[in-house]
Amino acid sequence: LSDHDAIQEAQAAACLGGIFTNVEQAFKSFGAITSSLASHETTSYKPPLATFYFKGRVGSSDITSMTTDVFLKVWNEDVVGVQAVEAEWTRYQDALDAGVPVAAPVLPEIVRTTGPSGYNHLVIAVEYIDEDPIQSMSDVVRFSESLIQNVIQMHDEANLLHCDLKPSNLRWRN
């Protein structure tokens, strides 16, 4: 599949047969998760897109949730191993169980689904968290203190390290 087709396939899979509607890309751009070694190679090989991020709305009354907006993370199961996705979900649950303020799950488990072209996908759904507006230096300080506190709590109470803190993984805007 082309990148465009892979995104459309994952987007359709993320709807989970109508459970979620208005599914759209959550970020302006995203791409495959690749190793830093692969990105420095001179070959023309481009790995297929593996992980997709969407924002949607709860479209099924069967889901009782405190939120109507959801963040959907979708993996192409043919590219990403099930064990890696299960390990990520387990770490997420560990953080949640330890009281780390993370987005509440909308679905209680990973869902396996098939897109319209027959590709298998794994989906997790959590509440969508809007970006924190940063309008002043005091907002920056509060946001930074909160971030540091949450990382410490994740480490001390859930025995987890984030290992991927970067601006694109933070929900803030100015």
Description:
With 174 residues, the protein is α+β, with helices and mostly antiparallel strands. It is 32% helix and 22% strand. The strands form 2 sheets. The protein has a 5-stranded antiparallel beta sheet with strand order 1-2-3-5-4, with helices on both faces. Strands 6-7 form a two-stranded parallel sheet. Strand 4 and strand 5 form a beta hairpin. 18% of the residues are buried.
List the helices and strands and how they pair.
Elements: H1 3-14, E1 20-25, H2 36-40, E2 51-58, E3 69-76, H3 82-97, E4 111-114, E5 120-127, E6 132-133, H4 137-158, E7 172-173
What descriptors fit this protein?
4 helices, 174 residues, alpha+beta, 5-stranded antiparallel β-sheet, two-stranded parallel sheet
Overview in brief:
The chain contains four helices and seven strands; from the N terminus they run H-E-H-E-E-H-E-E-E-H-E. The chain has helices at residues 3-14, 36-40, 82-97, 137-158, and strands spanning 20-25, 51-58, 69-76, 111-114, 120-127, 132-133, 172-173. Helix 4 (137-158) links the parallel strand 6 and strand 7.
Percent helix among the residues?
25-40%
Please state the overall shape, judged from the principal axes of the Cα atoms: globular
Per DSSP, the total helix count is 4
String of helices and strands: HEHEEHEEEHE
How far do the termini sit from each other? 36 Å
**Estimated share of beta-strand residues:** 15-25%
pLDDT averaged over residues: 83
Strand tally is 7
Low-confidence stretches: 29-42
